[in-house]
Design goal:
The structure is a single chain. This protein is of the alpha/beta class. The protein folds into 3 domains: 11-114, 2-Layer Sandwich (Alpha-Beta Plaits), CATH 3.30.70.2690; 133-275, 3-Layer(aba) Sandwich (Dna Topoisomerase Vi A Subunit, Chain: A, domain 2); 276-367, AICAR transformylase, duplication domain (Cytidine Deaminase, domain 2, 3-Layer(aba) Sandwich). It contains 13 helices and 19 strands. The strands form 5 sheets. Strands 2-3-1-5-4 form a 5-stranded antiparallel β-sheet. A hairpin with a 4-residue loop joins strand 2 (59-64) and strand 3 (69-77). The longest helix has 19 residues, at 112-130.
């Protein structure tokens, strides 16, 4: 059943099987394809996934002895984690090969990228050990340059309240307002250089003046304190946009990836003041495995199963937003962009998804 693999495998599904009878490799392959057929939409069946290169060649090794066959299944996948787990579970559901009773057990799903990262790390350590600089003048020059650069990116005091800020805050047209000094330092480490801190719940006059002449995003902790500060800002120094750390987390503790995700999910202040028009819809959908299309004129269509969203979207040309109790996948992102959808809201986002600039992607817990 070999097919030309178009994508590099990200995961490998490994399973063992025991069959009460003597069978051949092609019998096992046929049973896997046959008994999983029809469980999912056609494009998610094993044959279609192999044609598209999302599931690689399924390798079967086996041996028969005393009217009993035992063996191993190895299947490479370039799907995301959830989709790969679903396919693995479908394979495990196969209970017969021909007339013979069969038991398949998934032993593990390994991430091939972990092994690659470990190899890279090992090689990096070797390179570091072998990296010998013999010219002391060059070393002094490098140390001087690094020291100077370090001074450039340290936080400074800004305004009459001496608020913690990045050095070029006065020149930036767009700025981030955060809660405290630790938040500024963490954003600096992530390479963000247009940040200033409130340094307290009461909004300083320096911040009030900056809001009047710059585009401001309030980037606040995902806790009660962040809620209170947002209310204060909305009364005396309304920002243009609001971004929040994941619920229960603080900006100072976020990784660079978490920072980028939170900022990408920032929303206009108008949505915060008027109440997020999608929040109530998402609450009603949670746990239903259903979704809904919101048209550009504000009309809400009838709920539909999550599995049908991509196909139904092909027949719609005026969808503004899709809210659904499922995972935002790359396939759905591509379909949404093609049909001119502006917003996707799902239960969570698949790890491999790359969101284009012309599409907003949000998750239920951050609404």
């Amino acid at each position: 059943m070999g097919s030309k693999e178009k994508l590099a495998a990200k995961y490998v599904v490994e399973a063992t099987f025991v069959i009460d009878g003597v069978v051949e490799r092609h019998d096992v392959i046929g049973a896997i394809f046959g008994q999983t057929e029809g469980l999912f939409p056609k494009e998610f069946e094993l044959r279609e996934l192999q044609k598209s290169g999302k599931i690689g060649r399924i390798d079967i090794s086996l041996k028969s002895e005393k009217d009993r066959t035992e063996g191993k299944i190895v299947a490479p996948s370039s799907l995301d984690r959830a989709e790969t787990a679903l396919i693995a579970a479908a394979m495990e559901s196969v209970d017969r090969v021909g007339p013979c009773v069969t038991k398949i057990i998934i032993r593990k799903i390994s991430d091939v990228r972990v092994d690659k990262r470990q190899q890279i790390l090992k090689r990096a350590k070797e390179l570091m050990r072998d990296w010998v600089v013999t010219d002391s003048q060059d070393i002094e020059k490098l140390l001087t340059e690094v020291s100077q650069q370090d001074k450039k990116i340290k936080a400074v005091n800004y305004g009459r309240e001496k608020l913690t800020a990045t050095p070029d805050i006065s020149k930036a047209k767009k700025i981030l307002v955060v809660e405290g000094r630790a938040d500024v330092n963490n954003l600096l480490k992530a390479g963000i250089t247009n940040v200033i801190a409130l340094e307290g719940v009461k909004v300083p006059k320096t911040i009030i003046n900056l809001v009047k002449r710059k585009e401001v995003t309030a980037f606040l902790d995902g806790d009660r304190g962040g809620d209170l500060i947002l209310k204060e800002l909305m009364q005396v120094a309304k920002p243009n946009y609001v971004a929040r750390a994941p619920r229960g987390k603080e900006v100072e503790d976020l990784t660079p990836e978490e920072i980028r995700t939170a900022l990408a999910q920032s929303i206009p202040l108008s949505e915060v003041e008027g109440g997020n028009k999608f929040a109530e819809i998402s609450k009603g959908l949670k746990g239903t495995l259903e979704g809904v299309f919101i048209l550009k004129d504000g009309k809400q269509l009838e709920n539909l199963p999550v599995s049908e969203i991509v196909e139904k979207l092909k027949d719609q040309s005026d969808v503004d937003a899709i809210i659904f109790d499922g995972i935002v996948t790359g396939r759905l992102v591509d379909a949404a962009v093609e049909r001119g959808v502006s917003t996707l809201i799902g239960e969570r986002i698949a790890g491999s998804v790359r969101v284009p600039n012309n599409l907003k992607v949000k998750v239920f817990k951050n609404l």
